[in-house]
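Before relying on records like the one below, remember that each one covers exactly one chain. Contacts with other chains, cofactors or solvent are not represented anywhere in the record.
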Amino acid sequence: MYLYNVTIGIDKASEREWLDYMRTTYIPDVMATGLFTQARMYRVLHDNEDDTTSYSVQYIATSIDNVQKFLEEYGPSIINAHRDRFRDKHVAFMTLLEEI
C-alpha cells in the first residue's frame, strides 16, 4: 500500500470555500481517475499564530505505478486548477509513503 499525502496550508479567509471545493470537486476528480482506493482529509491540530489552517489530504493506492500514473497523466490538470483558484491563498507539499 502507498499513501500519497498532500499537506495544504490555506488562508483562514478562504478556508470554507476551499473545504467546499475539496469535497465537491478536487477529491472527487482525483478519485474518478480510478487510481486510488480511498481518500481522507484531516485538519492538522497545532497552535499557530498565522492566518492559515493546515490540512492533510491522503489518498491510498495499491501500487506505486498508480501514483506515478496519477502524477504524470491526471495530476497536472487537477493540481493546476486548484492552484489557479486559490492562487496566493495556499501552500502545499506532497509526500509519498510506503506501508511497511
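The first helix runs from residue 15 to 31.
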